[in-house]
Specification:
Helix 5 (83-91) packs antiparallel against helix 8 and helix 10 (244-251) packs across helix 11 (253-260). The chain is an alpha/beta fold. The radius of gyration is 21 Å and the shape is globular. The strands form three sheets. A four-stranded mixed sheet has the order 3-4-1-5, covered by helices on one side. The protein is built from 14 helices and ten strands.
Length: 319
């Protein structure tokens, strides 16, 4: 369990990041790709990036399937969309800080990966940064629009909570894995950790590729940060119980079935086969749903993949 202890001063210093953090998205997506039960909303993306096995193998060697990863891989600089600035921030981390970080991440009882041993001895971060850069531009940049949409929806939800219920109400509604028991924020976590804010406040970073439970830094002296899943893990829409007729009246039969069919992200070809219409018709209907903010569309090579936005999923779950 993760415990974050607040003082009265900290309650006045809770902030929500204004943009997705490129390297948290990269690192958490590498972690997620190795997870055996990746949520369905990522399946089309995983299928597309699986074509780049050499890049993925290199990324997996740096970020494990589970457990801790080095704090310096996700710089505590202000979040922003410029990934290159974040990579440069990694390169500027002093060697002594890197060595302390690696020693904290991989204590004696935890096997140390080869890349970490090499960095610890040589102080050279360029090979690691280059691995992350290749991965980011291959796997994360193509879906950045979906990432920004999801994070903005999360910001709007948290803002609404703040306005209607105050800071403590917002803290209590961050995610289903998080509980506010004043003055402590408790969260499901893979290890036992306590973070005392001591008046420093807390930065909440909504993340598209964070799921299941939040994430934070290992080093409690770093600026307090809580990386938050953008939404609870979704339950599939069941056409047998959901009132699809309402959606048909709102969107028309093909668009309604297309939207309901995207509980599992799919390509244009897959949707055409499911609905029994032409790929061209799917493309036309998808354009309308995309312009309405209900889905996002991403091209990977010759494949065009469609995914529900948080708004689109909310429309389905509201039936």
């Amino acid at each position: 369990m993760l415990r974050i202890r607040f003082t009265s001063a900290d309650l006045a210093r809770v902030r929500v990041a204004s943009e997705p953090h490129p390297l948290w998205e990269s690192v958490l997506s590498i972690n997620g790709l190795q997870y055996h039960n990746l949520p369905a909303r990522y399946w089309a993306w995983r299928s597309a990036v699986s074509e780049h096995q050499e890049i993925l193998r290199a990324a997996y060697s740096v970020v494990p399937a589970s457990g801790n990863f080095a704090d310096f891989l996700t710089p505590s600089t202000p979040s922003g969309p410029d990934a290159d600035e974040q990579f440069e921030a990694i390169r500027r981390v002093p060697r002594a800080v890197v060595r302390d970080d690696l020693a904290r991440t991989y204590p004696a009882a935890v096997p140390t990966p080869h890349w970490a041993e090499h960095v610890y001895e040589s102080g050279r971060l360029d090979p690691v940064v280059q691995t992350l850069e290749r991965y980011h531009h291959t796997a994360v940049t193509p879906v950045w629009s979906a990432i920004r949409t999801g994070v903005e929806q999360a910001r709007q939800r948290l803002t609404a909570l703040l306005l209607s219920a105050g800071v403590e109400g917002m803290l209590g509604g961050l995610h289903t894995s998080i509980r506010w028991r004043a003055p402590v924020l408790e969260a499901d976590y893979f290890t036992d950790q306590t973070l005392d804010l001591d008046g420093r406040g807390l930065l909440v970073v909504p993340s598209y590729f964070c799921f299941g439970a939040p994430v934070t830094f290992i080093d409690g002296d770093l600026p307090p940060t809580l990386v938050l899943p953008i939404q609870p893990d979704d339950e599939p829409f069941d056409e047998a119980t959901g009132d699809l007729d309402v959606l048909v009246r709102l969107l028309g039969p093909t668009r309604a079935k297309l939207l309901a069919g995207l509980e599992s992200a799919a390509s244009t070809t897959e949707l055409a086969q499911r609905l029994g219409v032409s790929p061209g018709s799917i493309s036309q209907h998808a354009k309308v749903l995309r312009e309405s903010g209900l889905i996002t569309t991403t091209r990977f090579g010759h494949s065009v993949n469609h995914t529900l936005t948080p708004l689109g999923r909310a429309v389905l779950r509201g039936l």
